[in-house]
Amino acid sequence: MRAACAALSGVIAGFSALAVAELAAAVVRPEAGPVTAVGSAVIDRTPPALKDFAVRNFGTNDKLVLELGILAILALFAVAVGLLALRHRIAGSAAVLVFGAVGAVAAVGRPEGRVSDALPSVVGALAGAGVLYLLSGRLYPARSYGERPAGGFDRRGFVVAAGVAAVASAGAGLLGRRLTSAVQAGAEASRRDLKLPAPASPAPAVPAGAELGIRGLSPFVTPNKDFYRVDTALVVPRVDAGAWRLRIHGKGVSRPVTLSLRELMGRGAVERDITLTCVSNEVGGPYVGNARWLGVRLADLLREAGVRPPSEGGRADQLVARSVDGMTIGTPVEDVMDGREALLAFGMNGEPLPFTHGFPVRMVVPGLYGYVSACKWIKDIELTTFDAYDAYWVKRSWSRRAPIKTQARIDTPRPFASPKAGTVPVAGVAWAQHRGITRVEVRVDGGPWHPARLAPGAGRDVWRQWVWEWPATPGSHTLEVRATDGAGATQTARRAGTVPDGATGWHSVVVDVT
Ligand SMILES: Nc1nc2c(c(=O)[nH]1)N[C@H]1C(S)=C(S)[C@@H](COP(=O)(O)O)O[C@H]1N2
Ligand SMILES: [Mo]
């Protein structure tokens, strides 16, 4: 009984610590909460293979899994600390403080960490240690008067104290949540009220027929709500559009600039369809999407700031974009300034960027994987060199440069589908951004390649739908697809994993025709 109560007091102390930390984090900033801070520190230190495993198996839920894992571990330790406090009251409380120190170090050690980020963990740990000290005190036999209640300790006293601590902590936690959402409400209002400018240069018309209209085929434009999301943010940054600024500075910048969103949007917006792809996308994977972006040409801004690309004698060959959450993304200056539509985007499919996709402004560069081009929640652009600086993912063994590799994906039929014998449309999408797709071929069971019908192209930065009418015969069959890009290169059959610069190989699907 005493042991059970000791375990319970550990759990309540842990709960108090987290709840009070949540309240403090609401005042400091949400990212500084201990669970988020430790989770982010884990993400920062996750080896690429494990990160890819998590993205692959949990998808966008990888972060939820991580936070639940941390909470489960904390719960176990809370029980242990509660039991420890039964032996050594002081040692138990000291152990809680050690956990607080871990949270504090994790929070301050983040790329954008400040000393004040330690506060939530420290305050929370003090509260947790105090609660444990008080509760475990109730579990010791009453010494005075020699009058021992049955069971060796004051049960009523314990239950009352535990109840008070639990309720007070819940109150603190809820208040913290309220405060956080009040702070975020400002950013949400700034997004709701944002009026996007009309494009001075509208997107070229999408040719009729770009959408083949086949069941099971990915739509030509990926709706925002279905657009894949890949980032390291445990708490989605909610930036107030009015307070947002972008700074451009560094090597070869003769006229550094700082821009507000209003100034950026007043520069004459261009609208372009650009297909985004993640380097963590396996052959046949889901981390690719096509959207209509609204923004300004980054190259124009850079020229005005005095930047010249290396091919014109510029000193900086790398552009490092920094986000409000400390992500760093390094892009070749030459690519940004070679005439392609590299954008600082504020609109996505007709609305302001969703918070999850980088509100208020992100980068989009056709032809480069997201981790070397597509910085969300951007706040700073520094011109430097690849020799002088390695960005976030490069420090974690991904390549410095990573153009998107040519890929074709079979969307329908689905793996292990059982279509009826007869004509079965085999269809999907193919992409080779900034080179374009010129041919897609399909083969069955390793037989001859059949040319697929390509939907009319919407430009070389955009994926293309394709279909091949398959005269399917009963039995189990393997379908394979390969694409050829605008430079005439056909996708290699050689299978390679995503690390360090993107997967290769042909997508294949096994189906059972009935
Ligand atoms: N701030 C920030 N920007 C980021 C990332 C990130 O983790 N943090 N991830 C990058 C990666 S790896 C990709 S593939 C794209 C994904 O953009 P999306 O989530 O809008 O699809 O964003 C890029 N920009
Ligand atoms: Mo990515």
From TrEMBL:
SUPFAM superfamilies: E set domains, Oxidoreductase molybdopterin-binding domain
Entry's transmembrane regions: 64-86, 93-112, 118-136, 157-175
Start and end residues of each Oxidoreductase molybdopterin-binding domain: 235-393
Pfam families hit by this protein: Oxidored_molyb (PF00174)
Signal sequence segment: 1-21
Keywords: Membrane, Signal, Transmembrane, Transmembrane helix
Keyword hit for Transmembrane: yes
The name this protein goes by in its record: Molybdopterin-dependent oxidoreductase
Organism: Streptomyces drozdowiczii
